Amino acid sequence: MPTRDVPPHLAQAIEKRSGESGMGPLQDPGQRKLAGLRRQRVVILFDIEQGELAASTDNPWTQRIALLTEAMTGVADDLVAANTIEPGPYHAVPETPIAIGAIDSGDAASVEFAVGDQRFLYSEDQDWAERGHQIARSELVRRTGDVDALLPGDTPADLRDDLRAHLSDSLFVMASDLRDRTLDGDPMPTNPSLADHAAPCPVCGNWTDWRGTCQACARRNARLMELKREEGRLLDERAREAQERRRLVEGMPLARKRLRDVEADLARLG
Description:
270 residues
């Protein structure tokens, strides 16, 4: 039967008892065997004590299992809440045409485009070319262009900040996409418009960006994954506690037999 690790205080007691028994390099074989049996007896008694504790009604394993079950209930409630789809803020934007301008895919790439009469320029920092050895390209930075000018005049006041932030992020995504298409030799998008940056999400109704990604859904999905990982961790930990308790309880008959055998050997040698 596998045994639990002996706690440090018990290991020290065994070592002390062995020292008091006069163990040493010149000790005769009989004394060494006697000391070894005494150590075994202490360890087996510890296993039996743990088994009896595990078999009792109020034991640490059951208590920990109850706490883990309670925590899992909380996670389950959080999963229900996270699965609830809250309708996102939405306000339509016009189909203002986007004219793609010059795209430089050199060491310090730049992308130009116009949304109606608003001209935007995104470019990488110049030090990308100066470092030379850098493998990953730096992010594009908006140099010119006013996102505020793209907000529809009838945008509700409580949505203006959200829509401004969304369009700013989506225009950056488009600029990066145009740069990458140029680098990869892929065709440019056909007839892009501002509406492509704020289509309603089919799941929650929030805005989607240039690539069709809904950040609200992305955040919700990330939260769901986090909660599912926590649920799995708690489930595994609870199973380990139950398995350990069962092992200790089921191992008591063998531990008691081992104790009888050891005590019989001690009686013969003593």
